Amino acid sequence: MKIAQIAPLAERCPPKLYGGTERIVSYLTEELVRQGHDVTLFASGDSRTAARLVRGSDIALRLDPRVKDPIPYHIMMLDEVRRRADDFDVLHFHIDLLHFPLIRDIAERTVTTLHGRLDLPDLVPFYRAFPEFPLVSISDDQRRPMPPVNWVGTVHHGLPRDLLPFTAEAKGGYLAFLGRISPEKRPDRAIEIAARTGMPLKIAAKIDKADQAYWDEVIAPMIAAHPKVKFIGEINEHQKAEFLGNARALLFPIDWPEPFGLVMIEAMACGTPVIAYRCGSVPEVIDEGVTGFIVEDIEQAAQAVGRIDELDRGRIRATFEQRFTVERMAQQYVEIYRSLADVSAGALLRRAMGATVGGVTGSDRVGLPALA
Prior knowledge:
Elements: E1 2-6, H1 20-34, E2 38-44, E3 52-57, H2 71-84, E4 90-93, E5 110-114, H3 123-129, E6 134-137, E7 150-154, E8 174-180, H4 187-197, E9 201-206, H5 212-225, E10 229-231, H6 237-245, E11 247-252, H7 262-270, E12 274-277, H8 282-285, E13 292-295, H9 298-305, H10 313-323, H11 326-339, H12 343-352, E14 366-367
Parallel strand pairs: 1-2, 1-4, 2-3, 4-5, 5-6, 6-7, 8-9, 8-11, 9-10, 11-12, 12-13
Antiparallel strand pairs: 3-14
């Protein structure tokens, strides 16, 4: 199949540091190429991919100090997507809602994966206005706030099997918190849980400008008051493997309807159990008593920390391989692509008419080598 993947421009594909959506787009793109599909990736110009790359910006927008507003860059990228739309059997969007008015006439051969929270009141009238668009959720729980829409599937995220190595024995003796410093991620709860158990806690997280006050006023003072808590900052993929693999458990004490929670399956890939609050997708991702424990409060979380030795790290890794690999994720998406009403007939017609690959000359294509 000829497939377009349209990524956000905030981070490159894959991100150097934090960035969940772009990371998943990258994993999916590379797996689709590996499976033999003809894939074009619309993303930031510093992305690394085995697919054909069409640059939406010079570099990831979050890393470009000249950029004040990301919207113009996404609109310019979407204009290029629209210009090339007939070159593809399926266009797969990962940018929420910006593209809807532009491609309404070809909605039947598009897929839009919604990666963010959907419990915001402004989204209800929007999605009611565009009921024909095929949508994919990343968890069943993510769908709950939405009006009736054209759901075509739920696809849980997946990781490459060899991305994060299995660690049979955690040598660090600490609890881990990985993600973002923000009120809904509740690093304050993680600190309280660690303090209740007496175990060290390492926090590897980014601090967005929007959350700087929360860090300054809430989290930094708590860390200063707890000598066993260490803040590491943002970490890269290599550091993540060691950080998660050597942790006794990952704390995921969220306080919001998390659409998926990529860090949970990253920990599982390392064999590390997850202790998570019952919010959002957590009950869909964590197998209670197998890959971790689902809790309601700090007391239950502290009790769960005392039970982590009951869990088999090898079984946690095996569960990851059964449920959360990129091969499974790509297979589910390909099934969705093929189920779209206009795709099969349209693909045959376009090929019969001799549509050119990519619809552009070689000089317009930017191909970069895949990551090792």
